[in-house]
Specification:
The complex is a heterotrimer of chains A (425), B (297) and C (313). Helices cover 47% and strands 14% of the residues of chain A. With 425 residues, chain A is of the alpha/beta class. In chain A, the strands form 3 sheets. Chain A has a 5-stranded mixed sheet with strand order 2-1-3-11-6. A 4-stranded mixed sheet of chain A has the order 8-9-7-10. In chain A, strands 4-5 form a two-stranded antiparallel sheet. In chain A, helix 2 links the parallel strand 1 and strand 2. Chain A is globular, with a radius of gyration of 23 Å. The relative contact order of chain A is 0.16. With 297 residues, chain B is mainly alpha-helical. Chain B contains 15 helices and no strands. The longest helix of chain B has 32 residues. Chain C is mainly alpha-helical. Chain C is built from 15 helices and 2 strands. In chain C, strand 1 and strand 2 form a beta hairpin. Chain C is flat, with a radius of gyration of 24 Å. The chains are: A alpha/beta (425), B mainly alpha (297), C mainly alpha (313). At the B-C interface, helix 1, helix 2, helix 5, helix 6 and helix 7 of B face helix 1, helix 2, helix 5, helix 6 and helix 9 of C.
């Protein structure tokens, strides 16, 4: 940007101020310096820092600094740093954003580092999950799939002990209605999933449809949306599903999900989040495939829970790539990281981790293996505007649930607004 | 107003018509109301402190403010949970907050004195420009500002958080002090002027000493807002070792995954201590006020 | 008397005029402000104005778009109008309620109540908590369907209330209550203002037999004018820019059904979630104009009700 040039004169004018001695230690250091940036929590921070330290021990000339913030703030800071021309070298990426960042040339195509970053051990699915427009922009740090999180005891109470492919939408409606009778008006069978964009996508995938076309347009029709809203409207009306006021309290953070608040026996999330759900729940939770439709696809696909990307502006891309390789392909690195970010993409590393897993970890690995068997191909990465459409579905879904719009009008409205969001760019 | 203001001072009269019993009863009533209100004000704090002692599985479904145990594990674990310890974060926060307090009080009081008591060309325009800086949401100046600080090499230091404050960028405090300085009787500086005092002496020997309450107010707000500020540090500080307390607190919560809730609430409770102490110390300056009466009438 | 607002430039006493008109002193005192304005504020502000005429997605360079952003805002953007009306509703309730509350508490605690220091500190605690997670969690617990408020309503009136915080019709009012509950800052400013009122005025009024209410009306209110004015102007500006309450309670979504979509929350979503910094800048400049108009009106009205001690002759 031009303003950078214009502003350099300030450097001289204010240089004296920075001589105070408060200036960063980082500026004047020899050797390679790599900035690693991720979102997370203390547990992930500890593991990531340990892996970075282990790498530094072996490569004394490389200095890695850690920068970590929570999910919500992560993207604001990354956008600011990228816009300012000062992105970190290693960037933890999300499937939702990889398209936005890679298409604008801010990420490095990892084929350029094939010498040091070996993707051969990855399953094709796990590898391709980091591809945009035929190039690899992110290494999958862990795979997951969507999963239904449920309260095991509640299901047993209504006589359901095993969840498999026979758990259809109809069966779900029946079980949910039963559960709602246990503690009427306080506890419901299922959370309202009509407002979750990924839930809608999943349902479309079951019918062999997509949410977005490969060139980033809406791939669904108003009738699809109406049918989806109608499905949930019936569940709400039968009492199987929590009412609008309860659903609207879920703003997307794990502690706000109906199952975490103790108001419903089923919530819909991602398989690697089950550890987090269990941590704040008194009752034993299970994970299972989403409700199925007889004779249709499962709708599940294997996707990256997180990816690691390298900035196209990195001054030492090779060192950064080596570091990624250490985390993803070497037993020492993989052991330190564990499955905290999801099940590793490389089969060899899965084998390395296998013996050390606890119950929750095993459940997670088994679930991904189970889902892989029935998985559909991964849809194209969400286009620019996908984040906005997620908020849009929440808004229109709520307005249908509150009865401010009919099921049909809601379907039309969502489709119309989604199309114009995608066109506006 | 004028008539009252020109009335002459007198001794405090005894309160007539209030019997001893009524006073006591009234006092009790007042304290009952105040204690009930205090409870409403303190509830979230008490809940937060109690949550630091609860198992994470019940934190979000349990509203009780009675800790189920007194195991201080979360306080120790939380203190050392991140790559750098909270001792480091407290130090970082403290350095920034103290510098900001000094910067704001010094630079804003100077600017406010100019606006309130001096005459010069362009004053109205400058004042309007200053007020306008309050009105633009900071989100849209963030990126140009980031580029600016990046180019002078200040990113990942505390300089972007501190240096501007020495240049009176906080219009809130300037306007606040203008309002208070204008409330000081003009007779004072007129008298000083006749005695041959220049504006600098008037500023230091008359205006500042009489403005203890507003200066203390500015100090309290500067400290509190800087201590709690999250967005500035988020953008400008990169290395975890440079983090301030609120930035470190955000590292405990991952809304998309596992969070260390118990440790978060333990550390959040502790993080209130410095601002609470700062408040208690400086509110005395507000409450003591200034003996203005003798100067009047 | 009192012919001027904060910027009186005429009508100073003759005696002093020559002295005070030595412009240089004013400029010297303003020097830090000038420096800060030019170095840190002016550049970024002008850049944001420029960006408001561009399409800027943060990750690639801005592209000139003329008036497109402004045209879209005023002709097509329904969320813009929704955000404006949410913000106005919030403002209309929050500002007067918060100010009255802050003033009442400041006066009640100003007189020598035993333990006043402690009460003041306690009443300031909600403001210390700011946008903490604890507040988000508890506000939900208070105002949800089976929350504390509804349990109280049920036991008193036998009526089951709605889930105030997640109902689109009522959600914004729970945020008003949250903001009013955090009344600490204006309270402190009022306290400082009360301390500037000479005690002897009250003593004199007492002798004249004026009751407490009369004293409040003829001494406290008028002498507190400049401080009330300050709080009014600043709370209005802050109200327009309110962000945190909606952000923590709605998780940044502005839901349900955009009923808590504050203007700056929308702006933030556009800038950082939807990658439209150009459009967000245009939103910001429109907000600046709106706030500017309100502030100018406040200043214009002030000449009728705010009297400064240094106007007195």
């Amino acid at each position: 940007m031009t303003m950078m040039k214009r502003r350099t004169f300030l450097a001289g004018a204010l240089a004296s101020a920075s001589a105070v001695g408060l200036a960063s230690k980082a500026q004047a250091q020899a050797g390679t310096r790599i900035r690693a940036y991720w979102w997370g929590n203390p547990e992930r921070d500890r593991r990531t820092r340990a892996v970075l330290d282990a790498y530094q021990v072996k490569n004394a000339s490389v200095q890695v600094s850690s920068e970590s913030v929570g999910w919500g703030d992560y993207w604001t800071k990354l956008a600011t740093q990228t816009a300012g021309g000062n992105p970190p070298d290693l960037i933890q990426m999300d499937y939702r954003y990889i398209y936005e960042y890679s298409r604008r040339g801010t990420l490095l195509a990892l084929e350029t580092q094939a010498k040091v970053l070996d993707m051969k051990g990855f399953s094709a699915g796990a590898r391709d999950a980091g591809m945009v427009d035929g190039k690899l922009y992110g290494v999958t740090m862990g795979t997951n799939s969507k999963a239904m999180v449920y309260d095991v005891a509640m299901f047993e109470k209504v006589g359901v002990t095993k969840l498999d492919a026979n758990f259809t939408w109809d069966e779900m409606a029946r079980v949910a209605a039963e559960i709602s009778k246990v503690n009427p008006g306080k506890y419901w069978g299922t959370a309202d999933n009509s407002r979750w964009e990924q839930g809608f996508e999943h349902w479309l995938n079951q019918r062999g449809k997509l949410l977005y076309t490969p060139d980033g347009k809406a791939a669904f029709t108003p009738a699809d949306v109406t049918e989806w809203f109608d499905l949930w409207d019936k569940l709400r009306k039968s009492g199987a599903c929590a009412p609008a006021e309860v659903a609207a309290l879920n703003t997307g953070s794990i502690d706000q999900y109906e199952i975490s608040r103790g108001v419903a026996a089923m919530s819909y999330a991602n398989s690697n989040q089950n550890v987090a759900f269990q941590a704040i729940n008194k009752n034993k939770l299970g994970i299972s495939l989403f409700p199925q439709q007889k004779g249709m696809a499962s709708g599940h696909y294997i996707k990256p829970a997180m990816l690691m990307s390298i900035s196209s502006k990195s001054r030492s891309p090779e060192d950064a790539a080596k570091l990624v390789n250490f985390m993803m392909n070497e037993a020492e690195g993989a052991k330190i990281l564990g499955i905290e970010r999801g099940v590793p993409g490389s089969a060899a590393m899965q084998a390395v981790l296998g013996p050390d897993l606890d119950d929750l970890g095993k459940a997670q690995v088994n679930f991904v293996a189970e889902a892989t068997k029935v998985a559909v191909p991964i849809p194209p990465p969400p286009p620019k505007g996908a984040g906005e459409i997620e908020v849009l579905l929440r808004r229109v879904g709520d307005s249908v649930a509150f009865g401010r719009a009919s099921v049909k009008d809601g379907g039309t409205q969502f489709h119309q607004e989604a199309v114009s969001v995608l066109a506006r760019g | 107003m004028t008539t009252v203001a020109e009335a002459s001072p007198a001794n405090i009269p005894a309160q007539p018509g209030e019997s001893m019993g009524r006073v006591v009863l009234g006092g009790l009533m007042r304290h009952a109301v105040l204690i009930a209100a205090s409870f409403m004000m303190l509830y979230p704090l008490l809940w937060m402190a109690a949550s630091a002692f609860k198992p994470e599985a019940i934190i979000f479904t349990d509203l009780s403010i009675v800790p189920p145990s007194l195991n201080p594990r979360n306080f120790f674990d939380g203190w050392y949970a991140l790559e750098a310890s909270f001792s480091r974060f407290y130090w970082n926060s403290l350095v920034v907050a103290v510098l900001v307090v000094i910067g704001n009080v010094v630079s804003c009081s100077m600017a406010a004195f100019a606006f309130a008591k001096l005459e010069f060309r362009g004053k109205k325009l400058f004042f309007a420009m200053m007020m306008a800086t309050l009105m633009l949401p900071y989100h849209v100046t963030l990126i140009p500002q980031y580029v600016l600080f990046l180019n002078i090499g200040w990113v990942d230091t505390i300089l972007p958080l501190v240096v501007p404050k020495f240049m009176a960028v906080d219009a809130f405090f300037i306007f606040l002090m203008v309002q208070f300085f204008r409330g000081l009787p003009r007779e004072l500086d007129e008298a000083a002027m006749i005695d041959g005092c220049g504006p600098w002496r008037i500023f230091f020997t008359i205006i500042l000493p009489l403005s203890k309450p507003v200066l203390a107010t500015a100090a309290i707000f500067s400290f509190l807002w800087t201590w709690n500020d999250f967005f500035g540090p988020l953008i400008y500080l990169n290395d975890i070792a440079n983090y301030t307390v609120p930035l470190a607190l955000r590292a405990f919560v991952d809304t998309t995954g596992q969070s260390a809730w118990g440790q978060l609430f333990a550390m959040s409770t502790l993080a209130l201590a410095p601002i609470f102490i700062f408040f208690l110390l400086f509110q005395r300056l507000i409450i003591e006020g200034v003996a203005m009466s003798g100067l009047k009438g | 008397m009192a012919a001027s607002v904060a910027l009186a430039s005429s009508g100073q006493p003759k005696l002093s005029s020559r002295f005070w008109r030595e412009d240089i002193h004013g400029y010297l005192f303003l020097l830090p402000w000038f420096a800060g304005f030019i170095f840190f504020t002016l550049g970024p502000t002008l850049v944001s104005l420029y960006l408001s005429f561009t399409k800027f997605d943060l990750l690639s360079p801005p592209r000139w778009a003329g008036l497109d952003n402004y045209v879209y805002m005023f002709t097509q953007d329904r969320r813009f109008t929704a955000a404006l009306s949410v913000t106005f509703i919030y403002l209309i309730f929050e500002v007067p309620l918060k100010l009255c509350f802050a003033l009442l508490v400041a006066i009640a605690l100003d007189r020598s109540v035993r333990g006043g220091n402690l009460y003041r500190a306690i009443f300031y605690v909600p403001s210390l908590l700011g946008g903490s997670v604890a507040i988000a969690v508890l506000w939900r617990q208070l105002f949800q369907g089976d929350g504390t408020i509804n349990r109280i309503i049920l036991s008193l009136f036998g009526v089951q209330g709605p889930s105030w915080i997640s109902n689109p019709d009522t959600a914004v009012y729970t945020l008003v209550i949250l903001a009013v509950w955090q009344f600490g800052s204006p309270m402190i400013i009022f306290l400082a203002g009360l301390r500037q009122i000479p005690k002897d005025l009250y003593e004199a009024a007492e002798i004249d037999g004026a009751g407490k209410f009369r004293q409040f009306r003829s001494i406290t209110l008028p002498l507190l004018g400049p401080v009330i004015f300050f709080n009014l102007v600043l709370q209005t500006i802050e109200g327009f820019k309110a962000f945190t309450p909606a952000f923590i309670v709605s998780g940044g979504t502005g839901g349900p059904v955009d009923s808590t979509l504050f203007y700056t929350l929308y702006l933030y979503q556009e800038a950082f979630a939807n990658f439209r910094m150009g459009y967000a800048s245009a939103l910001a400049w429109v907000l600046l104009v709106i706030i500017g108009v309100f502030t100018a009106l406040s200043f214009a009205s002030a000449r009728y009700w705010v009297h400064y001690d240094d106007d007195r002759r």
